[in-house]
Amino acid sequence: MNRKFNSCLFISLLSVIVIISTISIEVLSNRHQTSMIQAKQQKANERLSSFRYKLEARILSDIYVAKTLATLTTVNTSPIEKNWDSVARDIMSQSRDIRSLALAPNDIIQYVYPYEPNKKVIGVNFRQIPEQWITVKKARDIKKVYLAGPVDLIQGGVGLVARYPVFLDPPDNQFYWGVISAVLDIQKLFRETGLERLKKEYDVSIRGKNSKGAAGDVFVGEVSTFSTPLAQESVYFPYGSWVVALSAKPEELGFSNWIKANSVRLVGYPILLILMLVITVMYYLYQMARRASLYDELTQLPNRRYFMQTLDRIFTKNQLKDRRKTFFALINVDLNNFKQINDQYGHHAGDSVLQQTAKHIVHSVKPDDFVARIGGDEFLIIVLNVHSEAEVRQKIETVRNHLCGETLIVDNSQLNVSASIGFSLYSSEFTDYEDMILQADARMYSEKKQRD
User: Fold this and answer.
1) Collapsing DSSP states into helix, strand and coil, what is residue 15?
2) Rg (CA), the chain
3) Residue of 305, 274, 278 lying closest to 290 (CA atoms)
């Protein structure tokens, strides 16, 4: 009775220590993880803020440079048309990203600079191109510069297009003359404002095509970035905006990051485990006993119980993965005429044959394949990462060559063994792993009958 009381008291005290220690470790770990998340968010906000500032300033600079042309055209269109090349050249020399300028009286392009790479657009009527006309009409309706795109350009490539509506009666803006379009080199813009450098650290996405902000389409990165962003900011234009979001890269969520996030646990729980030394020893002894129950004593291969557990786990895992399965196959190896060996040479010789057979099978498969002896002279193999029957048959031939190509030495006698082999390849048509075993058995017995 006293021993029972002491045992209960010890377990109770140990339980209290474990509970208090666990709560303390978890509280400290949560604080540590919160601190890590805040630090990541702060860093991401700083990096994004810098990028957003550079991008916004660069685009606004290009927009206001080209606005000079719109202003000059409003004052007097004739000099602009007569001196188009020199005026356009001067405007472009003041911008880092404008790759072409186009003048479209009555929304029909009549002048473009530089001419040669963009001559395809001469004569283009925006009203006849729905995608382009929407942005031109938008600029006319809001009566201010409108940043469209990214759009596929008629002359080739992709770019941003700043649309400047020209009215001949400012500030009333009732007499619409046409539109000026400034095409910005979006690749150069993103490259020189640091987008590529930012992508090396984070998953970056930008949405707001045609300056529609959060309601616009995503044109850089993936829409999923906006689901759980580390940081998010808007890039504002004279009309409309973009939204830029950063999220952690998948590798940042991997094992090394897990180690950092759980460092408190990784230090705390080992200390707790030291306090639980008695239980650890008991658990170790239990595990040793359990291991003895999972392996075949003769061959030291996994036994039937261990094999069935493993097969069930792999089969269930493939079912849950749906289309992203890692296919596997089951191979059944059954020695031929094993009873005759026992009868002629004795059970000691039979045991030696089983041991040597186990070694040959193990050497014939890959390290991550699973070999087990499930009883008598029958061995089962789980072969991973195979996708066709041809691959399985090739593996079977490898196993057969290892078994049949080697002469076994038993008590100074030379024995040649052969085996009947069946297989089944995983398919979603199987309802459970037992169907695979049945199919492999059926094929093995079919081969054995053919030999007989």
Assistant:
1) helix
2) 37
3) 305
**Which residues does 25 contact at the CB level (< 8 Å), separation at least 6?**
264, 265, 268, 269, 272
pLDDT at 287 over 50: yes
The percent helix, strand, coil of the chain (3-state, each to 5) is 55, 20, 20
Q: Select from 335, 337, 357 the least CA-distant residue to 410.
A: 357
pLDDT at 292 over 50: yes
Which one, of 88, 154, 162, lies nearest residue 124 by Cα? 154
Q: Which amino acid is at 332?
A: N
Separation in Å, CA 18 to CA 11, 275, 277: 10, 9, 12
Q: Rounded CA gap, 416 and 342, in Å?
A: 14
Mean pLDDT of 21-35: 88
pTM, 2 dp? 0.55
Please tell me the distance from the alpha carbon of residue 306 to that of residue 437, in angstroms, as a whole number: 15
**Cα separation of 404 and 418, whole Å?**
5
**Based on the number of CB atoms within 10 Å of its own CB, is 146 exposed (0-12), middle (13-18) or buried (19 or more)?**
buried
State both tokens at 238: 């004279």
Query: In what helix (H) or strand (E) does residue 366 lie, and over which residues does it extend?
Result: none
Which of 63-67, 196-200, 317-321, 398-402 is the least confident region? Answer: 317-321
Name residue 244's beta-bridge partners.
206, 233
For the segment 150-192, what is each residue's pLDDT rounded down to a tens digit?
Answer: 999 888 889 999 999 999 888 888 999 999 999 999 999 999 9
By residue count, the chain amounts to 452
Q: Please tell me the distance from the alpha carbon of residue 379 to that of residue 443, in angstroms, as a whole number.
A: 14
Contact residues for 278 (Cβ-Cβ < 8 A; gap 6+) = none
What DSSP state is assigned to residue 239? Answer: S
**What is the spatial distance between Cα 370 and Cα 57, in angstroms, rounded to a whole number?**
61
Strand partners, 178: 105, 166
Q: Is 182 helix (H, G, I), strand (E, B) or coil?
A: strand
Which pLDDT does position 285 carry in this prediction?
67
Give just the sign of the alpha carbon dihedral 76, 78, 83, 89.
Answer: positive
How far is Cα 48 from Cα 193, in angstroms, rounded to an integer?
Answer: 11
CA 300 from chain centre, in angstroms, equals 39
Per-residue pLDDT reduced to its tens digit, 233-257: 999 999 999 999 999 887 666 677 7
CA distances to 41, 203, 422 from 252, in Å: 13, 10, 45
Residues linked to residue 423 through DSSP beta bridges, in sequence order: 331
Q: Which residue has the higher pLDDT, 391 or 269?
A: 391
Phi/psi of residue 179, each to 5°? -135, 145
Which tokens hold the place of 54? 């550079």
Structure tokens at 155: 């002359």
